[in-house]
Amino acid sequence: WIWCVDYNGFGFKEAMQGKLAARFGTLFSNHMPERLHRIILLNPPSVFRILLQAAKPFVDKRTLDKLVAVNGSTPKVLQTLREEHGFSERALQWLEQALNQKLPSPIPTLPQYARGLLLPSLIPKFQFVDPSSSSTNRESDD
Predict the structure, then answer these.
(1) Which of 12, 83, 127, 135 is a good FRET partner for 114, with 20 to 30 A between their CA atoms?
(2) What is the DSSP letter of 5?
(3) Cα 46–chain centre separation
């Protein structure tokens, strides 16, 4: 698993909200951190480095090693993700739309087999596609 966190529009004011940091920590720790390969921070604000340094004594080194910041214009970010992190063209196309804020939906479709990896409360929020067919279908948790 790789998480990409887009920091577009995220600044000092948002970074100083303690509830937000606590929510991120809870979200990370509740979603299989041992299976998480990397968290890629897309254009994090400079204050993030300061906050990360302050958190270092309290966070496991293996966890910190999973954090990678990628900075630059959208083309530069996409090039880095392709060349250094092996992102597929499909993932890059979706991220390009997300970074340019032109997504028809905020969440990409997932392969059908990913359904079993999600918390039951999240399943209704995703669209699943059968990898053997080209059609996308929305499934409910009924």
Answers:
(1) 83
(2) E
(3) 19
Please tell me whether residue 101 adopts helix, strand or coil conformation: coil
**Per-domain residue ranges of the chain:** 2-104, 105-142
Minimum mean pLDDT among 32-41, 42-51, 78-87, 104-113: which range?
104-113
Q: Using CA of residue 18, residue 36, residue 40, residue 100, what is the dihedral sign?
A: negative
Angle CA 101–102–107, to nearest 5: 85
How many other CB atoms are found less than 10 A from the CB of residue 41?
A: 19
Neighbours of 42 (CB within 10 A): 22
- CB of 68 within 8 A of CB of 37? no
pLDDT category at 139 given cuts 50, 70, 90 is: very low
